[in-house]
Amino acid sequence: MNGVITMAEEKDQLLNDYEEEDFYLSSPRRTMLAKGVFKELFHERNVDHSNLSDHVKKALEDAKEEGMLKPVAVGAIPFDPKNAPQLIIPEKILFAEPLQENDKLQDCKVSVRTYECQFIPEREEYMEGVNKGLTYIKDGELEKFVLAKALRCQTMEPIDNKQILRNLVQHNAGGYTFAVNLLNRQSVDSDQIHKRTFIGASPELLVSRSGTAVLANPLAGSRPRSEDPVEDKRRAEELLASEKDLHEHAVVVEAVAEGLKGLCKNLVVPDKPSLVKTETMWHLSTEMKGELVDSQFTSLDLALALHPTPAVCGFPTKRAYEVINEIEPFDRNYFTGIVGWCDESGDGEWIVAIRCAEIENSTISLYAGAGIVEGSKPEEEWNETSAKLRTMLNAMGLNDL
C-alpha cells in the first residue's frame, strides 16, 4: 500500500478525497479509501463461487510478485451466485482511524430535492408475498425467509454520490458505511456509459479476522425507532421480550455458530441477545468471538462459509432461495450480499450489505427486507421494510417520503 493516514484530524480527508470510481469503507475499527484498479478479478457474469476464495488468494499472490508491496482485495459479492462478484486489487489504499459519533464532519446537505419514486412491489403485492411465504412455513417447508422490496427513484438532476456518502457517514458513524464502484458498463443499445455505485450504511458485521481472532455479529429482529424517548424505550423493551423476534434471532445465531464451528475454536456465543440501535432502527444483536483453528483460513473463507445467513435469506437456505426467487419481482444484485476486504495475510472484514442502494446515472434503487417467520403479519413487515428505507432516504434528503 502506498499511503497510510493515521492522524485523527485526517479522518474527514478520506471522505473529501472519495470519487465515484473509488472504494470506501468506514467501520468501528478503521476508515479506508481504495483508489485505482491494479487488477480486476472478475469480468464474466457466471462465476464459480465455490472457487472464489482460491481465486482471490492467487490474485493477491500474483500482485505481490508483480511488485505490489501489500496487496488487498476489496469490493462486493452478490446475494445470488448467478451474479458476478465486483472485486478488485486497488492501486493504493489509505487508512484512517475509525470515525466516532461525536466527530465533527462538514454539514450535511440535501442531495437531490426532486425524485419520482415507485415501490417494487407495491404494498398489496408485497403483503400477498408475505402470506404466500407463510403458507410454506405452515406446511413445514421453511422456518424463515426474508422478503425484500425495492424503491426505485428517478431524477432529472445529477445524483451526488459523494454527498449521499457523507450524509450516511454523518448519521451512522458507529456502523459500517460503504461505497463500491460497480465498474462502468456500456449500454447494449447505445454508446452511453452507465456509471454504477453500490452505497449504504449497514449496522451488521458478517465476520472479521485479525490475526487468529475472529468476530461475528449477526443481527435479526427489529423495531423502528421513535423520536419520543418514552416510546422509543418501550419499543426496545418490547423487541427484547418478543418471542417471535427472539425465535427469528435464534435461527440466525445457530446458523452462524454452526458455520464457524469447523473454522474456529474457543467460540463464545452469548446465551441471550443484546440491543443495538441505529438512527432509525433497534436490532437484536449477538456478538460471537473465536480463534482460528488454521491460519490458512482467510477473512473471505470465513465470510463465504457464512454467506448468506438466515438474517438475509432464510432457513433452510436452499428452499429460502427458491421462495425468494419465486416471490420477489426484482434481482437483488448486491443487496444482502457482502462488502469488504481481505489482505495478503488473510485479515479483513466483511459487512452484510443492507440499508443500501444502487445508483446508476439518474436512477437510485433502494432496498429493504424483513424476516418472515411463523406469527409474522404482512402489514407489520411492510412497515418494517419502510422504516429500514429511512437510512437511505434521509441521506438523499427525502425526510418526508
From TrEMBL:
| UniProt-listed Gene3D superfamilies | Anthranilate synthase (3.60.120.10)
Q: Which NCBIfam families match?
A: isochor_syn (TIGR00543), PRK06923.1 (NF005380)
For this chain, the family text in UniProt reads: Belongs to the isochorismate synthase family.
Q: Give the coiled coil ranges.
A: none
Q: Which reaction does it catalyse?
A: chorismate = isochorismate
What is a single Pfam family found in this protein's UniProt entry? Chorismate_bind
**Gene name per UniProt:** dhbC
Chorismate-utilising enzyme C-terminal domain location, by residue? 123-388
Q: Which InterPro entries match?
A: ADC_synthase, Chorismate_C, IsoChor_synthase
Specify whether Isomerase is a keyword of the entry.
Answer: yes
Q: Mind listing the UniProt keywords for this protein, alphabetically?
A: Isomerase
According to its UniProt record, this protein's enzyme class is: isomerase
- Source organism per entry reads Neobacillus sedimentimangrovi
SUPFAM superfamilies in alphabetical order: ADC synthase
User: What Enzyme Commission number does this protein have?
Assistant: 5.4.4.2
Q: What is this protein called?
A: isochorismate synthase
Q: What is the lineage of its organism?
A: Bacteria, Bacillati, Bacillota, Bacilli, Bacillales
